Amino acid sequence: MSENVIVDLLKAVGLFFLNPVWLIALGVAVGLGYFRVKRERRSFLVRLLPGLTEMKRLLAESWMPALILSILISGVGLTVEVSWIVLFSAIAILSMISFLYQTASPIYFATIAFFGLYALERFMPDFTFRGWTIGNVDLLGDMALTVAVIAGLFLVAEGFLIRRHTVHYASPFLTSTNRGLRAAAYKSKRLWLLPIVFLVPGDFLSAITPYWPQFTLGGTTFSFLPVPIIIGFSQVARASFSDIMFPKIGRAVTIIGLIVVIIGISAYWLPILGWVALLVGFIGRAAITIFFAIRERKSGFAAVPKPTGVIIAGILPESPGEKLGLIPGECIRTVNGIQVTNEKELYDAIQVNAAHCRLQVIGRDGEVRLMQQVLYRHDHHRLGLLVVR
After folding, report:
1. Which residue intervals define the domain PDZ in the entry (predicted)?
2. Which of 184, 204, 273, 277 could form a disulfide with 267 if both were Cys (CB 3.0 to 4.6 A apart)?
3. CB 151: neighbour CB atoms within 10 A?
């Protein structure tokens, strides 16, 4: 008996890792890193981070939010139909393979899946699939409440991930301004995977794994179903720096998520408010993306060449430039007492004193400060700086 239980539990875990969403996410994350490295090398002849960074961070940054969400969703008793999860996952797959991660917010998947079920109920009421019929889904009952609240919680998690993890992985690249100059912009294209445990009614898993944990409440059987949930993000910062812009986006997404949760809870008394909550989240998330994209395109570039020195576009991790506390957008005026205006002059000035480097830097706020750093043999020969050239 105990061996059967272990085998069935392993089968259920295997269902998670063999889920197409999980497998496609792994491949797509590798692709994200590959194209990012190509873009960085095209601009600076060197990559900022290893190509497998996105794949390694796919789950490493999101497992804690996933654990908290699973406890909240299952602990509070928010149940969802398997049909909604299937549609949700199918839409997520389409979003991933399109590489259009502006559309990879879970609020889009949740809303489209919910109203997709409504369309089936309205226009294809006789639709059946392996015994499941659309008539079993009550979209003006518990589903209106649970889907709205879950979608709002996903938005809160998305806002947290954007605010916490996009700045450090913003990829600089060079592009042309309207005047033909070269300027730096910053692109963050991320993918996170959250293993969420849903509470589903019925004996969906019992046919596959008879010993998978179930419980009965009020005559209804419930199962815990682990599902990989995808959160994608893609945005370009050019009129402002990534450490300023991306946290603002994260905070805005979090606020929209909290609003969706509050309206969704109100669906307990008036179920149609669950529909309203999903639409508010869908429109609000789209408005955030559009607002920041338009604002960045209409404004000028923040990191453009200046006659007063060399503009920093990026800093390699664990390099002398990072140890100095330099940040993108700052201007290096002099190196070892020599004024510099381009990358070659910067490199030549560093070689004047290869063991000890002194910099005069103009900060983003216009303040001038002096900095110095001892350079060792293994350190990057240009301080690890990516500059606008």
Report:
1. 288-365
2. 273
3. 29
